[in-house]
Amino acid sequence: MQSYFTDKVVIVTGSSFGIGRATALAFAKKGAKVVLADIVADRTTENAIKDDGGEGIFVLCDVTKEEDIKNLVSKTVSTYGRLDFAFNNAGIEGTPAMVNTCTNESWDKTMNVNLRGVWWCMKYQIPEILKTGGGAIVNNASIAGLVGFEGAPAYVASKHAVVGLTKNAALDFAKQNIRINAVCPGIIHTPMIDRYAAGDPKKLEQLAAGEPIGRVGEPHEIAETVLFLCSDAASFITGQAIAVDGAWTTQ
User: Is residue 165 a contact partner of residue 119, using CB atoms and an 8 Å limit?
Assistant: First the structure.
């Protein structure tokens, strides 16, 4: 049976690991043609999609380089003839610091990846989505786009800005049938969390204890939310920042 996503085309940035990988795999299972983009030349996700009978290509892309993003979108259209959806997921946590000790280098790098990268992606994705008659974009914000976190000024500022940019873009294109939302993951078991835990199971236990639901989330749980926001089941949802966090921000 065909799904809503059958033969639709989606770009997923930051697709080699974690939430990006899980989302790319989920789109492919639903029949979408997936364009995988990452700064890391890891074809594991592409191979997994093809081994499962799906269709996808990998494009090396650094979202801090405008030409890379233009090439990503151009390659998508030249390969599949259209673009329907995008999950702008690529992001970094930056170097831990306080507001007064954060370096210019760390601030600029974090902003360039997390914010400018999302802006550039939408800048080149939207014209192609308009050509298909509409579609949906989901930007990955984080609960750090909703609340503050000690020791992460650049990350928190960048993710708050992604939420604001998402709302603005949603208003800009609401009447042109492009829905644009942000997903705000809580503590999700990804390589970012593994770097924080540094192999210490006690740190993971502490993170889980801080979640009202009693555990950390899994990448596939964010993927399902992204697919929902891109589906016709979410046809009246746009301009929203959806927390998927086990009630973390409800505390």
Answer: yes
* pLDDT digit string (tens) for the chain, length 251 residues: 578 999 999 999 999 999 999 999 999 999 999 999 999 988 899 999 999 999 999 999 999 999 999 999 999 999 999 999 999 999 998 999 999 999 999 999 999 999 999 999 999 999 999 999 999 999 999 999 999 999 999 999 999 999 999 999 999 999 999 999 999 999 888 877 777 666 777 877 787 788 899 888 999 999 999 999 999 999 999 999 999 999 999 98
One of 4, 80, 124, 155 is an active-site residue; which one? 155
What contacts 108, CB < 8 A, 6 or more positions away?
none
Q: What is the C-alpha to C-alpha distance for residues 245 and 242, in angstroms, rounded to an integer?
A: 9
3-state secondary structure 14-59: CCCCHHHHHHHHHHHHCCCEEEEEECCCCCHHHHHHHHCCCEEEEE
Catalytic, 155? Answer yes
- Is this prediction's pTM over 0.70? yes
Tokens of residue 163, six digits: 């939420």
